[in-house]
Amino acid sequence: MQLRRRDVVDKAARLLDDYGIADLTMRRLARELGVSPGALYWHFADKQELLGAVADRILEPAVDGQSDAEWQGRIHAICRTLRNALLSTTDGAELVSATLATGKSTALATVLSRLTDAAAAAGVDADHAGLVARTIIHYVLGFTADEQSRIQWDAAGALPEEQSILNEDPTARFAFGLDLLVTGVAHVPGARRVSR
Amino acid sequence: MQLRRRDVVDKAARLLDDYGIADLTMRRLARELGVSPGALYWHFADKQELLGAVADRILEPAVDGQSDAEWQGRIHAICRTLRNALLSTTDGAELVSATLATGKSTALATVLSRLTDAAAAAGVDADHAGLVARTIIHYVLGFTADEQSRIQWDAAGALPEEQSILNEDPTARFAFGLDLLVTGVAHVPGARRVSR
DNA sequence: ACCTGAACACCGTTCAAGT
DNA sequence: ACCTGAACACCGTTCAAGT
User: Residues in domain HTH tetR-type (chains A, B) (predicted)?
Assistant: First the structure.
């Protein structure tokens, strides 16, 4: 029976989670679906578009659920759910990072515009609000990609277990780094400061 | 005559600058050097090591020249020279980003340890100083990769020229984003504050 | 409309064998 | 010590032709 776009994304997401981003190839995906490689190009213009669709799938839990707290709380909520979504699948941060450059994920665009809104609510002028949003996204993607690569390195049996108790847990470290940015936004010069 | 490690890195750097990261392949590099692909594997363990050496080459101007200013000035100086180094060659930010994950560049390690020192000088405790350093590096790489991809998009003849005058110039935007982080470090709670 | 088959133009890496 | 030749096991993408 017919190949649907959904099924392709489903299988791609499974492949990613089971074998990692290096094994998420168009040919492997086609083989796994029992079709010829060319068949995928009826449903997707190219691999970038396919990866964009997978990114949208991963980011789904990060886009539903709006918060109406003050701007700091909104930034934290967005970034927490974003990180969780990235961690929920193998190489999630790396895949979404690759997608950020191509601009092929609508979910990522949604997250960016919400962060931009939060920055504007903090009193950052319109021109700089977008920059703040991208800076925050880069932080979340960078931190989580680091974290995820260490998880996979450790899973391959490297870590002595001791170092892990000396350091803070990743969630607290993530919040610490994010606070650097949020604090920066709160104190950045040139912004009309709106209390609360 | 014999192929030296230096010559391979030279040619790789040229290839990168002339044709971009997608065309920097082991086979292409070997062809350009007039050797067989296997020859490269006498001098480099794998492509990651080669890319690490190219990254070190690119980052050379960013590692010589120490500053002894206060910590804020040091962070700004490091990041300014780092961005300039990345911008000096095609896809510089993308190549160095890829290398950050593999840990195959000693130059990048040097930059990271200097940023860690600066964070420590700001009063950030030892555990968090490394995190601050990585956060800053992620910012510089993320910002510059964005900037560079736009430059290349524009060079391909897309931009209407108007939008570019409405926005601030990239160097000022870069400084703005960096100030977010520096300000955050200066105000982050829990650090023993050393004035000046 | 949707897919196959086959081709095109490539990859990174290994390794016996040569000099 | 340093390199070749050839192989191995792949890639993404296109497109005439089929149903």
Answer: 2-62
Helix intervals (H) in B156-193: 163-166, 170-187
Tens digit of each residue's pLDDT (9 = 90 or more) over B121-174 = 999 999 999 999 999 999 999 999 999 999 888 877 765 655 555 578 999 999
Q: Are B114 and B82 in contact (CB under 8 A)?
A: no
Give the minimum alpha-carbon distance from A7 to chain B in angstroms, rounded to a whole number: 30
Is there a single domain that holds both residue A35 and residue A99? Answer: no
pLDDT at A35: 98
Task: Give dist(CA B13, CA B177) in Å, integer.
Answer: 29
What is the C-alpha separation between A51 and B73, in angstroms, rounded? 41
By Cβ distance, the residue of B128, B134, B185 closest to A146 is B134
- A69 shares its domain with A162: yes
Same domain, residue pair B101 and B136? yes
Residues, chain B: 196
In chain B, how many H helices and how many E strands?
10, 0
Same domain, yes or no: A166 and A122: yes
Work out if A88's Cβ lies within 7 angstroms of strand D.
no
- Residue B192, in any domain of the structure: no
CATH of the domain at B9: 1.10.10.60
| Parent domain of B139 | 59-185
pLDDT, position B155:
79
Q: How far is the CA of A105 from the C1' of D13 (A)?
A: 22
Average pLDDT, rounded, for chain A: 92
> Within chain A, which residues score under 50 in pLDDT?
194-196
- Name the average pLDDT for chain B: 92
Q: Which of B177, B183, B185 lies at the smallest CB-CB distance from A135?
A: B177
Same domain for B69 and B17, yes or no, is no
Specify if A139 maps to a domain. Answer: yes
Domain assignment of residue A38, yes or no: yes
